Amino acid sequence: MRPLKTLTFEAFRDELALTFAQIADKRESHRITWEMPAVLMSAFAMLFFQQPSLLEYQRRMQKRTGHSNLERVFAVQEIPSDTQMREILDGVPMEPLRRMLPQTFEQMRRVGWTTWFVTEVAGQKYYPTVLDGSEYFHSPQIHGPHCLRQRQANGETHYSPVVVGATVRRAGSHAIVLLEAEEVRNTDGHQKQDGELRAAKRLIKRLRAEHRQLSLCIVGDDLYGHEPLIAELQAWRMSFVLVAKPTSHAALFAQLAEREQRGEGVQGIDMKLTG
Fold first, then answer.
1. How far apart are CA 71 and CA 111, in angstroms?
2. b/e burial code for range 259-270 (CB count within 10 A of at least 16 → b)
3. pLDDT value at position 62?
4. Are 38 and 76 in contact (CB under 8 A)?
5. What is the DSSP letter of 75?
6. Cβ atoms within 10 Å of 78's Cβ, excluding its own
7. Which of 67, 102, 201, 215 is the most exposed place for a label (fewest CB within 10 A)?
8. Which pairing describes strands 239-242 and 216-220: parallel, antiparallel, or unpaired?
9. pLDDT tops 50 at residue 272
């Protein structure tokens, strides 16, 4: 199949449907009202239409036009309520969906769509790739085994699911392409607390494995501007631009201040934050 044909909305929807059909459904068969592929496609449609309640949106469309976009565009006949949808989605594994990211980006690269994101610095061309964590919600009650835990001042524990995303971005534009994602997860569900830096290291390793020749420049805020992550970036042949705040890099900024007072440059300083 030619790359351009695989990048139409219909082709992407069909690829999603194929992936959804391969995801195991761990629910008891006698309790299943809505099939897993239909639920997953409904969730995708909810994001596509950017609607807080897909069920209510479809009811309005059905009443106004006599047919539903969900049926016409996504080939889904019935959907569960928002609450039921969330309960079903909670148990869906992320990995089968994540594997579509490198596949889609490679299809885009092959037809030249990604060249718009390329930035040239000192004669070298890069894909600027921003690392950033996304927290979906805070709750003292709702949580899964991989949620991060935060103890509040009143002794209450709050839970939150977090994902580190790697998005290719163009300077001065709101356009982005999601290149990779890694869940920040507590591996044992009890004691070992994961974090964005650990997740970022896993993400970087997989980025290089799935995009072996891609010239990447990793961009991150002060959270990522520390030596262990920088060592990982260098090991995997990635350039980087990372924020360094004086409050978290006091020794480095002290050296810079001293040399400035003496009228000297930065040569000889152990600049951990350049690549």
1. 31
2. eeeeeeeeeeee
3. 66
4. yes
5. -
6. 14
7. 67
8. parallel
9. no
DSSP 139: B
Q: Give pLDDT tens digits for 115-155.
A: 999 998 878 899 999 999 988 777 888 777 777 788 888 88
User: CA nearest 89: which of 25, 146, 28?
Assistant: 25
Q: What are the CA-CA distances from residue 228 to residues 86, 159, 224 (Å)?
A: 37, 27, 9
First vs last C-alpha separation in the chain: 39
- Taken as a whole, the chain contains a residue count of 275
Cβ neighbours of residue 81 under 8 Å, at least 6 residues apart? 55
Residue 220 burial (10 A CB sphere; 0-12, 13-18, 19+): buried
Tokens of 191: 């004691």
Of the candidates 11, 15, 35, 12, which has an alpha carbon nearest to the alpha carbon of residue 24? 35
Alpha carbon distance 238, 131 (integer Å): 13
Q: What one-letter code names the amino acid at 270? A: D
